[in-house]
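Entry:
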Amino acid sequence: MRRRATRVNIPEVATLILTQPEIRKLLPMRTCMDLVADALASLARGHAINPLRRGMKLADGESLIGMMPGEIASSRLEGGHATPAAIGLKVVSVFPKNHGTRYDSHQGVVMLFDEKNGVPRAILDASEITAIRTAAASGVATRVLAREDAGDLALIGTGVQARAHLEAMIVARRIRRVRVFGLNAMSSRAFAESESARHNVAIDVAESAQAAVEGADLVCTLTSSRKPVLFGAWLSPGAHVNAVGACFKDTRELDTDAVKRARLFVDRRESALNEAGDFLIPRSQGAFGDDHILGEIGEIVAGMCPGRRTRDEITLFKSLGIAVEDLAAARYLDQRARKEGVGVLVELGGVRGDVA
């Protein structure tokens, strides 16, 4: 039975609260990949709003509080059924010092607001949504950019995103081989053991990032490094790279050669031109101009620009993570949880007492 707040007269537009375990149960990776693909295509078509995120550094000089607002317009599907708008924002704290502790480095909430009157409709754990939708975006990019027979996977990193990306890659392609590398050998071995059992796939621990990447046709960089962990000289012809870990203009995971060799696609041009160190640092060195960004993943999904053209070209998806991805996942979670009676309903929202 659905858990409810103690107040008796909860209005129809009550606020739903979902926890991390509830979100994990309700949002399968394959479903989230479809949601993210639709959201990115809607953004490409001009049916969504996704301004640049805003952040405030905290007094410790390394942690921050960030805000990511957005809106996806309502749409009418086949059969006349309408999909409601998704209006809201994600508020997230980023605490790098959480690495190695029981807490994820990203904490926060995703909030949805009712499209008719702005009442808070849902408050959802942001850590779990971020973990799933970030990997889902890479999964969508892999679907539209990687070779159809790609299946030799290299993971650089062993944290939350490594686990989520392994799942997304298994959904996107038939994975036949996995190699993982992390700076902590014990964490790498633990990752290989747990995820091998979880997915029934053999995972080898590589002795170096280079050993993991050489020969791979799918590569995911998933670290908190501020300096390159992936070098262009290691990449095989036809490889597809998902670069995920670096999300600030002064940090990067790929060296200049890796980005220069690849056909580059992003989740949002505006975001990449302002925030993506993997792109901005090589550009500042004169390696290429803004036109090195060939398109957005949503534009490929929407049929507005081509993705992979040849078998041997290297493709790169530079992921930053944008609000419409969070909102698409949150809208789905809100609908499914209410239908299945999952979560807590509380009464929030300002109500005028003088109106009958």
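Residues 4-10 have pLDDT under 50 and may be disordered.
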